[in-house]
Amino acid sequence: MMPNKIINESDKIAIQEAIQKAEELTSGEIRVHIDKNCSGEPLKRAIEVFNKLKMHETKERNGVLIYLAFNDRKLAILGDEGIDKKVANDFWDSTKEQLILDFKNNQFIPGIIKSINEVGVRLKEYFPHQVDDIDELSNEITFD
Questions:
Q1: Residue 23: Cβ within 10 Å count
Q2: Of 1, 54, 56, 133, which residue is most buried, by most CB within 10 angstroms?
Q3: Domain 3-127 maps to which CATH number in 2.60.120.10, 3.30.56.10, 3.90.770.10, 3.10.310.50?
């Protein structure tokens, strides 16, 4: 399926609002990127997208990318090095497993929104929202 057939304008708005709400809990930054296809490893592609979106340029290096390739049914959740220094290697596994389950149940948009909410809650523990926090990265969904 093509991303633009799965995600319409109201879905985009709902996802972006979920990002904004999740970021109210944390100083972390959350982005969602959707590819039509991913021929290789989704984590490698997520790293490319992470760098392309300059997500490593946040003050605390606490950006998180939720990467999805719909046609190939692949995904990755990638946190920056500031997060990796503080959490266990399997930190994103439960979020990823829930997202896979939601996708298997054809709950694409609710699954994405649920995973965004979970990322915000999980980041809050290590990177709580600060009074002077600024939104360092766009909340817009990106596509390739």
A1: 22
A2: 133
A3: 3.10.310.50
Structure confidence at residue 84 (pLDDT): 93
- Are the C-beta atoms of residues 54 and 47 closer than 8 Å to each other? no
Distance CA 128, CA 109 (A): 26
| pLDDT digits 0-9 by tens, 10-62 | 999 999 999 999 999 999 999 999 999 999 999 999 999 999 999 999 999 99
Three-class HEC string of 39-51:
CCCHHHHHHHHHH
Q: Look up the pTM and report it.
A: 0.94
d(CA 30, CA 114): 13
Q: Are 108 and 75 in contact (CB under 8 A)?
A: no
* Per-residue pLDDT, 2: 42
| Residue 25 contacts residue 123 (beta carbons within 8 Å) | yes
Decide if pLDDT at 76 tops 80.
yes
Residue pointed to by tokens 């109210």: 24
